[in-house]
């Protein structure tokens, strides 16, 4: 992918949408948001990963590189399909505050209501599910069985299951487990079918309105995942399935000790022998789901930070060469002109810069980073190039308004002078967050830039503060629970953003 024309978009996970049932879903509110984007002149909606979430509610450490998140299934659509009654879905309406997600209660509620829907399958539904299962046989059966076994053993870590043959994934043990737990496996397949059908309908609607979907692909997957359990030979594990070295990043802007993610690292030498087949299947699935794929932590293809699995922090890691150009030659053979955005943030060395140039993929810039030092750093808009995706901030950053508070007085003065905001910092509170002139000056500067694609988190459209932050790397509390309300979305100054997109030629 090479960005050829100017456009803009909004970053917001599906889960952040408003709705009556405790979490954003693929239903009518998703379509309303598509309509809102169209009204404002945006072209892209970036939704982040959509796989099953982990214990901390993050989609970046999923139990599958291929599955969808059943919590995003819309109950009203299940009612339209005749699988749930109106009274049944009314009983699922959330009593939690509409601006956050109460995941523990949500998960319990959904399991009950989904099983009720599953019990009402007609012959036509069953036939469609069988066709879906056959079309996705290369990952679906393994994922469904893995999910069931995690429930049976009350343990997501497959190396701790009390059945050594299942830990080793032996054919006889797998066959016996399938026979023993067939109904539970069918239920998991049903959930993936429902999710996929609703997803396709949603994406078709978005595309019909001229909105393209950007999906995120985490570079790594969780050790507690169906993929690692089924393909341990592809990961740096010992004979018992325990990670030897794990993923992370060295000390950076987010943490003085680095970030210890804990994901198992790949055995790129093994993957190379079969031309990276697992990776290419994963990318093929993503291209089927999304119009554009943002590969998270792209720099790991050039070199990755390897940390001993027993290390307490990421500081003791070291850089190891990745598959680099060899991998992307194989990708190009299967997917010429692939629509990929490379998240190339963090430490940039000549090898990474060369790899990105060779692929032609657009990299990323974060304007919030532009003013944290006195250097002529790469995040300053005058250093952007056309083939680039420029963000005010991402899901891992503070909001724009929250960042202004985090800046030192000197940094804030630098940012405001750069963006042409000459009023006193305190004056904007007379106007309110939605009309915050300092935020508007920052956003205007971003839209003026030469970067062909600019992206704004939904909070920055609204002028929200740090209490609406989606995720804070290195922490586990209060992440991934933020939601918008319908009222908040209706208060966005749609005319201003539409004018901005037209003024700076980000809409045809």
What does this structure look like?
The protein has 508 residues and is an alpha/beta fold. The chain is built from 20 helices and 12 strands. The strands form 2 sheets. It has an 8-stranded parallel β-sheet. A 4-stranded antiparallel β-sheet has the order 5-4-7-8, with no helix packed on it. The radius of gyration is 23 Å and the shape is globular. The mean pLDDT is 94.
Outline the secondary-structure elements.
Blueprint lengths: L6 E5 L16 H13 L3 E3 L28 H6 L5 H5 L12 H16 L4 H13 L4 H14 L10 H4 L3 H10 L1 H27 L3 E6 L8 H5 L14 E5 L9 E6 L3 H6 L3 H13 L2 E4 L7 E6 L9 E4 L3 H10 L5 E3 L7 H10 L3 E4 L21 E4 L8 H7 L2 H11 L17 H12 L4 E5 H5 L23 H5 L3 H10 L5
Parallel strand pairs: 1-2, 1-12, 2-3, 3-6, 6-9, 10-11, 11-12
Antiparallel strand pairs: 4-5, 4-7, 7-8
Helix pairs in contact: 6-9, 16-17
Which regions have little confidence, pLDDT < 50, spanning 5+ residues?
none
Count every beta strand, where a strand is a DSSP E run of 2 or more residues.
12
Averaged pLDDT: 94
Structural class computed from helices and strand pairing? alpha/beta
Side-by-side strand order of the widest sheet? 9-6-3-2-1-12-11-10
Described by its quaternary structure, the protein is single chain
Taken from the alpha-carbon principal axes, the silhouette is: globular
Instruction: Supply the number of helical segments.
Output: 20
Radius of gyration: 23 Å
**Which percent range fits the helix content?**
25-40%
């Amino acid at each position: 992918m090479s960005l050829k024309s100017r456009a803009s978009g909004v970053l917001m996970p599906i889960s952040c949408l408003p709705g009556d049932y405790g979490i954003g879903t693929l239903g009518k509110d998703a379509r309303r948001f598509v309509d809102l984007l169209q009204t404002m002149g945006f072209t892209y909606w970036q939704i982040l990963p959509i796989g099953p979430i982990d214990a901390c509610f993050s989609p970046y450490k999923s139990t599958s590189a291929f599955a969808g998140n059943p919590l995003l299934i819309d109950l009203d659509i299940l009612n339209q399909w005749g699988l749930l009654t109106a009274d049944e879905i009314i009983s699922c309406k959330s009593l939690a505050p509409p601006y956050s997600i109460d995941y523990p209660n949500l998960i319990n509620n959904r399991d009950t209501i989904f099983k009720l829907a599953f019990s009402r399958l007609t012959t036509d539904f069953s036939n469609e599910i069988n066709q879906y299962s056959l079309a996705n046989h290369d990952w679906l059966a393994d994922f469904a069985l893995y999910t069931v076994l995690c429930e049976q053993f009350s343990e997501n870590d497959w190396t701790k299951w009390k059945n050594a043959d299942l830990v080793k994934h032996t054919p006889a043990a797998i066959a016996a487990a399938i026979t023993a737990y067939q109904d539970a496996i069918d239920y998991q397949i049903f959930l993936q079918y429902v999710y996929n059908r609703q997803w396709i309908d949603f994406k078709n609607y978005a595309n019909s309105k001229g909105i393209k979907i950007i999906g995120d692909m985490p570079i790594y997957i969780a050790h507690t995942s169906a993929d690692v359990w089924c393909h341990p030979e592809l990961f740096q594990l010992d004979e018992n399935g325990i990670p030897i070295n794990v993923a992370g990043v060295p000390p950076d802007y987010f943490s003085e000790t680095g970030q210890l993610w804990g994901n198992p690292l790949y055995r790129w030498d093994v993957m190379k022998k079969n031309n990276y087949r697992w990776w290419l299947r994963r990318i093929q699935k993503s291209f089927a789901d999304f119009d554009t794929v943002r590969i998270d932590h792209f720099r790991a293809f050039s070199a990755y930070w390897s940390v001993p699995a027993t290390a307490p922090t990421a500081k003791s890691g070291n850089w190891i060469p990745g598959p680099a150009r060899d991998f992307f030659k194989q990708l190009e053979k299967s997917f010429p002109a692939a629509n990929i955005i490379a998240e190339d943030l963090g430490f940039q060395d000549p090898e990474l810069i060369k790899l990105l140039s060779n692929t032609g993929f657009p990299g990323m810039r974060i304007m919030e980073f532009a003013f944290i030092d006195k250097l002529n750093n790469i995040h300053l808009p005058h250093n952007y190039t056309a083939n680039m995706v420029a963000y005010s901030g991402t899901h891992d950053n503070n909001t724009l308004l929250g960042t202004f508070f985090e800046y030192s007085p000197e940094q804030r003065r630098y940012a405001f002078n750069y963006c042409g905001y000459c009023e006193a910092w305190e004056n904007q509170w007379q106007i309110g967050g939605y009309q915050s002139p300092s935020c508007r000056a920052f956003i205007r500067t971003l839209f003026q830039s030469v970067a062909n694609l600019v992206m704004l988190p939904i909070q920055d459209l609204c002028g929200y503060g740090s209490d609406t932050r989606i995720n804070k790397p290195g922490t586990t509390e209060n992440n991934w629970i933020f939601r918008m309300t319908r009222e908040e979305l209706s208060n966005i100054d749609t005319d201003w953003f539409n004018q901005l997109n037209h003024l700076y030629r980000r809409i045809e």
